[in-house]
Amino acid sequence: MESFAVIRADDPAKLNTALSDLQRHGGLTFTSSPKELRPDSADRILMNVMKVPLKKQCKAAAIVALSDDPGVAIDVLGRIHPPAHVIIVSSRHDIYAKINECLQGLPEIKDYMAPVIQKRA
């Protein structure tokens, strides 16, 4: 597991769209199913990683482990512009170990369906 993507959204529909966009348009590889994250936890992760005060609280949040290199994942975000705020957390962040410990105890997102991705010939 190289990194985590923490997704903060205004509503569950935007959350699911952002998760699908990461796979479909960004080509990122999830190592497990996306997990439900409490919005306040996602907000705290943002403040910890970005070292800035929170401007707006989210209403829906998720976290997913990525097998992709953190730098690649960040580049993908700049290219695809998902409809939610996505934070990439790597092992260089202080909170990485705590997230890694807690990830297994989080419930999977109930309504998320992974996109069907057509392989190009």
Automatic annotation (TrEMBL):
Domain of life of the native organism: Archaea
InterPro entries listed in its UniProt record: DUF356
Family annotation (Pfam families): DUF356
Protein name listed in UniProt: DUF356 domain-containing protein
Source species: Methanooceanicella nereidis
Lineage, opening ranks: Archaea, Methanobacteriati, Methanobacteriota, Stenosarchaea group, Methanomicrobia
